[in-house]
């Protein structure tokens, strides 16, 4: 087996010691990401029974799992990821690459013409270790999520997505403010402090 790099070994040690990782295992959550959504739900009340929710970049399923528990069988959670994701109660899963037009058509077919109340995106690219390239690939996924939301959300719907701050961030915020009633930023406690990630919450979609 190839030896682990020092950085990967540090990450594994940090991950194993992470209190949110330990809590996720203890409470039966698919990932520590569930606690990020839990905190946002407490402050912003995004999820409620009867909604249709699309979760982009869902695997291993922490956000979908949490959303399904809040909906409690009333509404739909449709999850999409390029990686496989074991079945979750109350979650419909589509496996495929979000950048693939055929996969988007499958997602649209699953919606059957219905509009969406909430689009969630925790997508991130596989990092190459080249900062500018990684950031550009990340922002490309963000742009695709915004494009999807603009075609799929009902008027008044919401968009929650992970964004890495850097080049293009202010332009993204300006774009969202043209299409949504409000744009807020959230940094849940479960987000690692050294991470540049921030969660952008755009509420009240309006047709423009």
The percentage helix is 40-55%
Enumerate how many helices there are, as a single number: 7
Describe the biggest sheet?
7 strands, mixed
Q: What's the overall geometry?
A: globular
H/E element sequence: HHHEHEEHEHEHEE
Radius of gyration from CA coordinates: 17 Å
With strands numbered from the N-terminus, the spatial order across the biggest sheet is 3-2-1-4-5-7-6
| pLDDT averaged over residues | 87
Regions with pLDDT < 50 over 5+ consecutive residues?
6-13
Structural class: alpha/beta
Query: What is the total tally of β strands?
Result: 7
How large is the share of residues in beta strands?
A: 15-25%
- Terminal-residue CA separation: 54 Å
Assembly classification: single chain
Question: What does this 3D model show about the protein?
Answer:
- The protein has 208 residues and is of the alpha/beta class.
- Helix content is 42%, strand content 24%.
- The protein is built from 7 helices and 7 strands.
- It has a 7-stranded mixed sheet with strand order 3-2-1-4-5-7-6, with helices on both faces.
- Helix 6 (131-152) packs parallel to helix 7 (169-179).
Which terms summarize this structure?
alpha/beta; 7 helices; seven-stranded mixed sheet; 208 residues
Précis, in short:
With about 210 residues, the chain is of the alpha/beta class. It has helices at about 5-15, 20-25, 35-45, 60-70, 100-110, 130-150, 170-180, and strands at about 50-55, 75-80, 90-95, 115-120, 155-165, 180-185, 195-205.
